[in-house]
Amino acid sequence: MAWTGQILRVDLTNGTCKAEPLNMDWARKYLGQRGLATKYLVEEIDPKVDPMSPDNKMIMTTGPLTGTCASTAGRYSVVTKGALTGAIACSNSGGFFGNEMKNAGWDMVIFEGKSPNPVYLLLQNDKADLVDAGDYWGKSCWDVEEGIKEKHGDPLIRVASIGVSGEKGVKIACIVNDMDRAAGRSGVGAVMGSKNLKAVAIRGTKGVAVKDTKAFMAAAAAGKEVLAGNAVTGEGLPAYGTQVLMNVINETGALPTRNHRDVQFEGAGDISAEAMVAKRESDGKANLITNSACFACTIACGRVSQIERTHYTVKDRPQYQIVSGGLEYEAAWALGAATGVNDLDALTFANFICNEQGMDPISLGATIGAAMELYEDGVLTTAQTGGIELKFGSAEALTEVTELCGRGEGFGAEIGLGSKLFCEKYGKPELSMSVKGQEFPAYDSRGIQGMGLAYATSNRGACHLRGYTVASEVLGIPEKTDPLVSDGKAGLVKAFQDATAVFDSAGICIFTSFAWTLDDVAPQIDAACEGDWSVDYLLEVGERIWNMERQFNLAAGFTGKDDNLPQRLLKDAAKTGPAEGLTNQLDTMLPEYYAARGWTPEGVPTNKTLSRLAV
């Protein structure tokens, strides 16, 4: 129950689609989605494979709760070896695509090889076909979704696709579903493009069964009540979305600004949630039109926005004078504070382009920020940028480069390498604010110490969603810890990482963890799935998943030396705010973390640990 028990294996090289039973022994050890698909991946590919090679595989996967009435149970993930990082990649998305896959009867779809010509997968319940995508190659995610729905005469088909950036191998390319939801990080869109797979279109009408319907309905209802009564999930996120954090993190002194040269942005208020809801003097309208929700979500943190029609980005282009996916915190930070740009409409436009062409706005903005520093230092000139004056604070430069990157053209193609390769190309690798090749999200680890350790040890490269200690260090969830001290952060990071692996693998949104603990999640999984799913067992599952991912990365060539931060964060003290004078204390936290994990001082899981977890 809860699992469909079926996976679809798509051989793109030979053009075949074949159903096979789900390995239920693995499901009981790894639960689903992130954990279970990663188990399939590590068993089936060489960890040293080139991510863009046909020998790499890409898995679209759901969790056991996906498609049920549990709150936020619409998630799906894309698991592969990341094009941006060369590390294990699991990129999670909301919207309605995951629910459709599950209702079509599939726990996961495994894509192998490379099609000789562009194709898309059409999946209608049990019927799977590879369809010629020649007419869609070279088109945006928006055009592809609309085109496929029109072609098949079904507006309820759910589509996940890549834009031109993914086709051209832009390493920060993502996979977009439902027009503005994305499996966003680690370059999964580039992997999809390398396989000549333009889109996956699904229509499912089967429904999802659970083990004990009455118990599950009661557990799901109890969970929704907890979410509704919580200040974050019941009030803050519905009203302001994740953008509620912009002013909060800025005041905390942990908003990375101008490529982490500063920890506070003087323009934060101009690009904040409060600015999004404020009425414009020009037309009496606000940037934010309304909020929106993914499948089964009772939080509804999504943003729907419109750009002022006289703004230079859209005044002569009616195709962007639309209501579409608005800024969330990470995108607003990366496109804004990281580049020094405080033009809200310019940021919204750049975010539209990311949704339209399928790009990760975090890596995009952070890489542009690094390029702006190189430009201001004289390493880059207009000769390299194609005439663009790439100065911090230039909204025009931001939007122009974003469009170029979306098309994989000119200087935009260089930005599409990601900051690590880009900065290495120009002889300044130290200016890449990244871990394992993936750019930092919107928290400076001098002002939030635990996030530095979480970034350094994240299996998919720098990531806030692998261990969101901001919840504790800033918001006091589940208990308040001091963001400016390193004591106790090793255990905190481990606990968040293991629990997050469970949330991701269940098929629910990590935002529920602002209100839920595993005490709220376990009854829902236990009522939905065969077997006994106690809190203690789920924690073991989460720890098992983390160690499995670690083992893959070690086999791929990563070592403990890659659990590091840029010297800027370790040597250059914060200049302002509560963290003024502080650097990140990774050197004291990392050995404690390895010990807590049961790893050697070099960061390798011991045989005792692997045996205990049966990895």
Helices, strands, pairings?
Layout: E1 6-11, E2 16-21, H1 24-30, H2 33-44, E3 58-62, E4 76-81, E5 88-93, H3 97-103, E6 108-112, E7 119-124, E8 127-132, H4 141-152, E9 158-161, H5 164-167, E10 175-177, E11 181-183, H6 188-194, E12 197-203, H7 213-229, H8 231-240, H9 245-252, H10 273-277, E13 288-292, E14 302-305, E15 324-325, H11 329-337, H12 344-357, H13 361-376, H14 382-385, H15 395-407, H16 410-415, H17 419-425, E16 434-435, E17 438-439, H18 449-457, H19 470-473, H20 489-506, H21 518-528, H22 535-556, H23 567-571, H24 586-597, H25 607-613
Parallel strand pairs: 1-6, 7-12
Antiparallel strand pairs: 1-2, 3-4, 3-6, 4-5, 7-8, 9-10, 9-12, 10-11, 13-14, 14-15, 16-17
Structural commentary:
With 615 residues, the protein is an alpha+beta fold. The protein has three domains: 6-203, Aldehyde ferredoxin oxidoreductase, N-terminal domain (Aldehyde Ferredoxin Oxidoreductase,  A, domain 1); 257-432, Aldehyde Ferredoxin Oxidoreductase Protein, subunit A, domain 2, CATH 1.10.569; 446-613, Aldehyde Ferredoxin Oxidoreductase Protein, subunit A, domain 3. Helix content is 40%, strand content 13%. The chain contains 25 helices and 17 strands. The chain has a six-stranded mixed sheet, sandwiched between helices. Strands 8-7-12-9-10-11 form a six-stranded mixed sheet. Helix 2 (33-44) packs across helix 20 (489-506) and helix 11 packs across helix 12. The protein is globular and about 60 Å long. The mean pLDDT is 97.
